[in-house]
Amino acid sequence: MKSVSVRRLFFVLLLGMMALAAPSAQGDPAAGTWHLNVAKSKYDPGPAPKSNVLVIEVAGDVIKVTTKGVAADGSPTATSYSVSLDGKDSPVQVTGTQDYDTIALKRISPNRIEGTRKLKGKAVQTYAREVSKDGKTMTVTTTGTNAKGEKINNVAVYEKK
User: What domains lie within the chain, and their CATH numbers?
Assistant: First the structure.
């Protein structure tokens, strides 16, 4: 009789541990490969890039982001960084125009991350990334100034592939 109770307790504990682990196993809804939908995006002052592919990988609380694209003038662009969602600055590797060299991010909700981009220690842009409830669309909103000192208000719409 005692061994049956011990087994039941073990089983209940195991189910509880699995339930707690399930949300982290599902991961960030932004994980995956995203393609910029230029027609649905808005780049002010512009011009918009010709293309951009964004890949997001998640390992625990660390997000690795890589992008490859083509700027409006046809030149290649690329960005790469790994960042913890602790609000602390992380270095960014950029090919093309360097608007920022660090990024700091925090999770606001399961589908939303917000943060600050800095250039040489000075905050130059705010950043927000939100994945739609159906997980098919991601909107990245960036405001602030670019490398030319121009005010920007960009809304990039990505579709999951």
Answer: 27-160 (2.40.128.20)
